[in-house]
Fold this protein.
Amino acid sequence: MNTKPLIILGAGATKACGGPLTDEILPAALKNWFEMDGQQFSVNNREDLLFLAKEFMRNCFNVPTDDDLITKDTCPSLPMVLSMLRRSTQLNLPIGNYDGEDLVKARRAIEYSIFAVIEATLQRIPYNKRFHTQLLEPFYRKGVEPTVISLNYDVIVDNAMFLLSERFRGMEPPDYGVDIATERYKDFCRGGTFGNLLKIHGSLNWMYCEKCKRLDLFISEGMRTAKALDELYHSVPFDDAYSCQGTPCRNPHCDGFINPILITPTYVKDYENPHVDKVWKQAEEKLKEADRAVFIGYSLPTDDIEVAMLLKRGLDHLDRKQITVVEYVHGDDAKPTDQRTPIYGHPTGNRFRSLFGQDIDWQTTGFQGWLVEQQLKGYFPFDY
């Protein structure tokens, strides 16, 4: 078995569990509902933040007023909206007729919208779709520390690692690779950590104060699935975060306000954040140490230049057969191996082929299908 396994998670890993893809988040927030397994579920509003988000998107980005017309095709790219809001609030520049405090409130509303949609889906992930837990459990059971690099804002993998840590390690939480100031999390870490969870694009539960540079780990209702997470929730509940009026920094000597760290590929300046800089450096170190790398649900989009450079630098030492890319191609899980979509017949495959060559382990059965085949072949998780 590999002793330094590394897993890279993209949006497709979240989608496989029932969560939203990036371009599905804004439509769900603006309509105030999302669909999962053929059922509609409402998205929790707070302080009319969803209303403020919808008003902002209608006034500045021409999103339709009729909910039936709000789709991913009629909404702008979420990374673009976040980047424009971040840049405009920092430089005190208007977007349309929004400026000053109105623009700050719009930014808070959009950031809350992302949280609300992901939180609503997180609470409804069925037991049979907890693929992150299935993937990671063998490592915890065998005492092999995994490194997970996540490009997602959600906390699905956080949940899995906390749960498994409690079950197999007596509560040694994952090391986030950033300087989290939350005292209860630091208490857990004093007893030791197990595994690395490096969220290089930030996280919905990372709340950062730009004034004093403090970073806290806030816990939402949807994360209260382990004793440690429940304790953290009572220490730093999400009820204190995502407020229209702004959430004060928890540093008693600071009068600043906190915001989530949500990195978008189109806004490179965000990488200058000291915590983001630190986690990227750790990610590169872990990539260079890895003896096996598995990408799940990451399409290597062309605008992720910084990520592509990081991966190229970090994984060039590996034999190409030790790099697995798990993509989902509809219907391929029902086909024999030799009839599945080849690497050169898929846009994601071609992007990875250009980076690492055509000899990588290319799989098109999706997260669930790949896990099933790993188990059936008897070398689950990384015994080859």
Notes: The mean pLDDT is 91. Residues 22-122 form one domain. The radius of gyration is 20 Å. The chain has 13 helices and twelve strands.
